[in-house]
Design a protein that fits this description.
- The protein has helices at 2-7, 25-33, 39-50; strands at 53-54, 60-61.
- It is built from three helices and two strands.
- Strands 1-2 form a two-stranded antiparallel ribbon.
Length: 77
């Protein structure tokens, strides 16, 4: 990474609109299972994906797809 940073003087940044909001949880979990079979890792990722969202007005809305916006784990998943 250091050599590439020194070699190039430009950066390419992409933003895919609503990418993290449209991820199917079942497909994501299948992909995660390809990389680990550790039960506690799978448990926490499933919980993370199913956790409800609290709206600014205080109401709680269930999540059916996507990963938490702004979540530290979302880019990794």
């Amino acid at each position: 990474a250091r050599q590439r940073c020194w070699r190039y003087d430009w950066v390419l940044d992409l933003d895919i609109k609503a990418f993290f909001d449209s991820i199917e949880p079942d497909l994501l979990m299948r992909a995660v299972r390809q990389h680990t079979n550790c039960p506690w890792v799978l448990l926490y990722i499933e919980r993370w994906l199913k956790a409800p969202v609290q709206m600014p007005d205080g109401s709680i809305v269930g999540r059916e797809r996507g990963t938490p916006q702004g979540g530290v784990i979302s880019p990794l998943l």
